[in-house]
Amino acid sequence: MPALLLLTAMGVHAQKSISTAAVRKFVQSMALIRQAPLSVQLKLQSHTDLPTDGEDEYELSGGIYLRSGSAYVQLGDTEQFMNDSVAVMINNDTKQMILLEKTTGSFNWQLPGMFAAGTADSTVKALGAIYTAVSNDSGVVMTTRALLNGAALPKENVQLTVSRKTGFPEEMQVTRRKLVMMDSLGMVELRDERHVPAERFMREGEYYHVVKEVTIRLRYEVIDRSEGTVPVTMAERLRKTAASEWAPVAAFADYSVLKQTN
């Protein structure tokens, strides 16, 4: 192999090894908050530089409580209960309960703020196919390999800040990008009144696309590994009737229950 090709191949291999090591560091840190017993206090914030949709701007507080064989999650007006056979999602704003019963096997939980699940090797491989990554003293930065159509920008960046002392995650920031179509009047307004840089616009016929960024910041404010008390149990929301059907307890009698199976 010519020397130049050999050096190039060695460089590519080294970059791949560095990226894989960084992804593994990310997975290992996130795995620490999937081990029961665990109680995590969270703060979730979402912000966009182009607020075209009210759902892009919000701030929520809550917690995740993992115990052996079960989990409880509260985030804003929503609650989730999970065990090996039942998952319940409750929206206290709309007064709706969605109950999912597992008919075979058990659930593979994907909880808010957990990001990655599965065995370490399989997760590293799956994430490595989607992201390139670098690590530093404060954590890991991952960038999608896929670029936004028509723009030399990655579709997503993930930045994880890790505690140097414990290895636990402290904050995760995810920036997602998408193209929003608008007419020339909308483009002029963004450019002249909101000072959006010209390079963020792409023209397609009579219309323009602008790159919109939504940044979600998840702060792990308190992490407790003790067997503390879970603030709410499933029995405080649902009960089994004499006919073995699920129904809300008396305090939640005005909630509707939608039952699904998996």
Description:
The protein has 3 helices and 15 strands. With 262 residues, the chain is of the alpha+beta class. The chain has a single domain (3-261), classed as Clam (outer membrane lipoprotein receptor (LolB), chain A), CATH 2.50.20.10. Strands 1, 2, 3, 4, 5, 6, 7, 8, 9, 10, 11, 12 and 15 form a 13-stranded mixed beta sheet that branches. Strands 13-14 form a two-stranded antiparallel sheet. Helix 1 packs across helix 2. The longest helix is centred in the first third of the chain and has 29 residues, at 3-31.
Task: Looking at this protein, list some descriptive labels.
outer membrane lipoprotein receptor (LolB), chain A; two-stranded antiparallel ribbon; 262 residues; alpha+beta; 15 strands; disordered N terminus; 13-stranded mixed beta sheet
Main sheet specs: 13 strands, mixed
Report the radius of gyration as a whole number of Å.
23 Å
Q: Specify the CATH class.
A: Mainly Beta
Mean pLDDT: 85
Helical region count?
3
Give the percentage of residues in beta strands: 35-45%
For the terminal residues, how far apart are their CA atoms?
54 Å
**Helix content percent band:** 10-25%
Could you give the topology of this structure?
Blueprint: H1 3-31, E1 38-48, E2 58-67, E3 70-75, E4 78-83, E5 86-91, E6 96-101, H2 120-130, E7 131-136, E8 139-144, E9 156-162, E10 169-182, H3 184-192, E11 201-204, E12 207-224, E13 238-240, E14 246-248, E15 256-261
Parallel strand pairs: 6-15
Antiparallel strand pairs: 1-2, 1-12, 2-3, 3-4, 4-5, 5-6, 7-8, 8-9, 9-10, 10-12, 11-12, 13-14
Helix pairs in contact: 1-2
